[in-house]
């Protein structure tokens, strides 16, 4: 098995790619792959080696580091607010086009062993979603909860919406014990959420110090106690 694959529990794997990760959850009759990465891994081959079941994809959002291998699978689920961006930016011309299906706030993805509730969590992108497994007390968080760099510049980023999302998650943090983010350290605990709220509030208030980003990007880097925001006043 590749070193990029870590078995977390029965019917649950994380797949590590440079700078991003995916998650595979197996049910009795089908399996769910959360995001498809940068495209540097033979993801379809890896997933087929883990489960013989048909696999559908759920995109937490449609930035390119989460969708590069989407076309290798038959069915994609995402929030409708992400679909236009994905159709124009995420699809690869000339390749097969999987079936696009909507996910809404409150939808439940039932995989027998797993029952994930869809949470709409805009801010990083308009249709960012998270997946909450209440019985197993875990949250698959995409990019919004992490201790690395949260991208808040470019198309679709919205700092006020992010702040509302973080406050919503703070009110729900008694519903989960473990957070599975797409980037940086993994797993995390809900203790990070209040720090992200304070950081986002300080960023909005102009209280964080601007630093040059580590790479050539049209933004500044603003570090708070628990993470960093890459931001340029929403432009």
TrEMBL record:
Pfam families: Lactamase_B. It comes from Catenibacillus scindens. Residues 19-183 form the Metallo-beta-lactamase domain. GO terms for molecular function: hydrolase activity. The keyword Hydrolase applies. InterPro entries: Metallo-B-lactamas (IPR001279), NDM-1-like (IPR050855), RibonucZ/Hydroxyglut_hydro (IPR036866). Keywords: Hydrolase. This is Glyoxylase-like metal-dependent hydrolase (Beta-lactamase superfamily II). SUPFAM superfamilies: Metallo-hydrolase/oxidoreductase. It comes from the Bacteria.
